[in-house]
Design goal:
Layout: H1 17-30, H2 39-49, H3 65-82, H4 86-106, H5 112-123, H6 135-144, H7 152-157, H8 159-170, H9 182-191, H10 202-205, H11 216-222, H12 224-246, E1 254-259, E2 265-270, H13 272-275, H14 286-304, H15 310-323, H16 327-339, H17 355-370, H18 379-389, H19 392-396, H20 400-411, H21 415-428, H22 434-443, E3 448-452, E4 462-466, H23 470-477, H24 485-497, H25 507-518, H26 529-539, H27 546-564, H28 578-583, H29 588-591, H30 595-611, H31 615-632, H32 634-656, H33 661-673, H34 676-683
Antiparallel strand pairs: 1-2, 3-4
Organism: Pedobacter helvus
Protein name: Zorya protein ZorC EH domain-containing protein
Length: 686
């Protein structure tokens, strides 16, 4: 039994007998033997034999690899030819995806001709092929060839074809809508924030973002230059289209200029969401985010493999900076440099002269420190994200300030250039912005001073620290200026919300956090009102007064409204607790008997399930329905699932009619409003 799986269905092959059997079967089939009745058992044998192969990057194949590939392909060929009904085709897709196709792709190194023939047929499924005749099967092959770990060996042996597939599958389908139509207006309002010029259907082909979600990690593993040749122009075009769709008055999007020398500057499309896209907290597109995750992961893995790789990694980082047009690439670069400071060079050091990057990186790191959730169902993909979250540099630094200080202290290779960048930041720092000036003092070692230690017993010692000016010292001397109560309250609420053990899980602790948040002059930096409100509704509603309960409900409703109707171009959102806040919707009908409030909560719940664009929030809402609201209002929950199914049927029906997207959305909305089940759903509390 394979110890990696602890599963009686996962046998690990031992000895040469497995290879002998597979070769014997292949020779028998080629010799004309009729082994139809034995096909099931020997296909099970081949899949069990395949358990010895690693998940990816196969270095050496077993002796019977070519014979196994021959038998796998022969079985799949026979199955796809008999799939003459929709149900048979559907079963074929399931078999190929879960059984034979992944193993066949792993054996590419021993059966390149077999795989190439299959991929060539998938390249144009509508073109007649003597062997591969099922279009649905070939379309499935094409999609899976660019999806995740299945693409590993295909990227190694057929990189150009896999890149071609990705471009064809992901390219945007042309539309010719009427700008004056109502449907067009609805479509633009709903989709422009998430618009990257890519085929919308790919969002259904991929799960939650992961570095292993697309083919790119393995393309970068086997052919790094080809990988960069693909990803840089691909994401440049995607972010440019997103920028053009959202760069209007009131948008957080802008262009940031980076100075590389007196004669060389470059502008990048920029906002916080772009900068932090590689971490996935603000994923606007699964493919875009997964590509950036894979890019960062492969660069970090390569650096972890030894300093002998540093020179080539620096050249990769230079390409991202010099050829990239958006700060999404720059966010990846700064992450890699923080993990391996020796990678900083003449080009990347210039990124440390942009104040916005310090602000964005501090917020990204702090947000991840307080709340970090994943909703990936695939254990392989989930484990990848969990490992990436634990990288040392993510734990050591909560922004670029600490990194710059440590670099100036310990590495020092580019201190001269870095001091010039700090001088530029000093020259632009407003006198009144004492917090930013404090951060500059913290970074700039030239302004550090030796001062006597004031702690009793250490009078003969001196300590070195930032030499703050009078203004900064005055602000730091104020009581509670850096008590970080907002962060502390968020961390407490997050632990209690996740049912982790804490010493002070009580209404009084919640009330204190609530009062700190609503105070007139409260410092709400890194506070999480949505999390606090949802926690209060779930655990402390019976102890609240009316004012507190109303605040919780109003807060949750506001999050729901902002999720359903985001501000046009409002890409920069400091909130990290949207998912937990929307979970609170499912608690309101349980703690408030007011019919109007219950109806409002239920309507938000249903609309968020079918149209909410935050999938993590939808997971929390569904959890609340199943684990909480089901107990007090099972009829509503039942109607909710029936409503979702009806909505899916309506949407499928419209898709089948193959209407243009703007007509389809308008018809869908009209049909949705005209069905009795929605009103029954909302009124089901009676």
């Amino acid at each position: 039994m394979d110890p990696r799986h602890s599963d009686l269905d996962k046998f690990a092959p031992v000895g040469s007998g497995w290879d002998y059997l597979i070769t014997f079967i292949k020779q028998s089939v080629e010799g004309g033997a009729d082994l139809t009745d034995l096909e099931g058992p020997y296909m099970w044998l081949i899949r069990s034999w395949g358990n010895q192969l690693p998940d990816f990057d196969v270095k050496e194949l077993p002796p019977a690899a070519a014979d196994a590939a021959f038998l796998l392909a022969a079985s799949m060929e026979k199955e796809q030819k008999t799939a003459d009904t929709y149900r048979n085709e559907r079963d074929l897709l399931r078999i190929s995806q879960l059984g034979n196709l992944p193993l066949l792709f792993k054996l590419t190194g021993a059966a390149q001709d077999v795989i190439k023939e299959l991929l060539d047929a998938a390249d144009d499924p509508s073109k007649p092929h003597p062997r591969w005749t099922n279009m649905l099967f070939l379309e499935n092959v094409k999609k899976h060839s660019i999806s995740g770990v299945m693409a590993d060996q295909l990227c190694k042996y057929f990189p150009d074809l896999i890149i071609k597939f990705a471009k064809e599958e992901w390219i945007e389908e042309p539309e010719n809508p009427d700008p004056d139509s109502i449907g067009y207006s609805f479509h633009r309002q709903q989709e422009q924030i998430n618009y990257f010029g890519l085929n919308r259907n790919i969002e259904f082909d991929f799960g939650f973002p992961s570095g292993y979600q697309t083919f790119f990690y393995w393309m970068f593993l086997h052919h790094p230059q080809k990988a960069l040749d693909f990803i840089i122009p691909f994401l440049n075009d995607a972010f440019e289209k997103n920028y053009q769709a959202n760069a209007h008055k009131g948008s957080d999007l802008n262009k940031i200029k980076v100075v590389f020398s007196k004669r060389q500057t470059k502008e990048y499309y920029a906002c916080y969401d772009y900068w932090s896209a590689y971490r996935g907290a603000y994923a606007r597109n699964r493919v875009v985010t997964s590509l950036l995750m894979a890019l960062e992961k492969r660069l970090l893995d390569l650096a972890d493999n030894g300093t002998e790789n540093y020179d080539i990694i620096r050249s990769y980082l230079d390409r991202l900076i010099e050829e990239g047009s958006n700060v999404a690439f720059l966010g990846v670069v700064t992450s890699v440099v923080q993990a391996h400071p020796e990678l900083l060079n003449q080009t990347s050091v210039c990124l440390l002269g942009v104040r916005e990057f310090y602000n964005w990186e501090s917020h990204r790191a702090t947000a991840e420190f307080t709340i970090r959730d994943h909703y990936i169902q695939d254990p392989f993909l989930l484990a990848e994200r969990q490992r990436e979250d634990k990288r040392p540099h993510r734990q050591n630094y909560t922004g670029l300030v600490g990194f710059v200080r440590d670099y100036l202290f310990y590495v020092r290779d580019f201190n001269k250039q870095l001091f010039k960048k700090l001088d530029q930041l000093w020259n632009k720092a407003p006198e009144k912005d004492w917090l930013w000036r404090k951060q500059l003092f913290d970074m700039d070692l030239r302004k550090y001073k030796f001062e006597p230690v004031t702690e009793p017993g250490y009078e003969n010692f001196v300590e070195m620290g930032p030499g703050y000016d009078k203004k900064v010292k005055q602000m730091l001397a104020k009581p509670d200026v850096f008590d970080f109560k907002g962060v502390q309250d968020t961390m407490w609420a997050n632990k209690v919300f996740k049912f982790e053990e804490v010493k002070d899980k009580s209404y009084e602790t919640w009330k204190a956090a609530y009062e700190r948040y609503i105070a007139p002059k409260a410092d709400r930096l890194m506070s999480s009102p949505g999390l606090l409100a949802a926690l209060g509704l779930r655990d402390f509603a019976l102890e609240m007064n009316k004012e507190q309960l109303k605040w919780c409900e109003d807060t949750v409703f506001q999050y729901a409204e902002d999720t359903l109707h985001p501000k046009r171009g409002g890409l920069f959102d400091l909130r990290t607790d949207e998912k937990e806040a929307l979970f609170g919707l499912t608690i309101i009908p349980m703690v408030n008997n007011d019919a109007l409030q219950q109806k409002k909560a239920k309507e938000y719940i249903f609309r968020l399930i079918i149209r909410g664009n935050n999938e993590g929030a939808r997971v929390h809402i569904e959890s609340g329905l199943t684990n909480y609201l089901q107990q007090s209002n099972p009829k509503f929950v039942e109607n909710c699932w029936h409503g979702v199914l009806t909505y899916i049927e309506l949407k499928a029906d419209e898709t089948a009619k193959q209407r243009p997207i703007w007509e389809r959305q308008m018809a869908l909305e009209e049909a949705e409003l005209g069905h009795d089940w929605e009103e029954q759903l909302i009124r089901s509390h009676r």
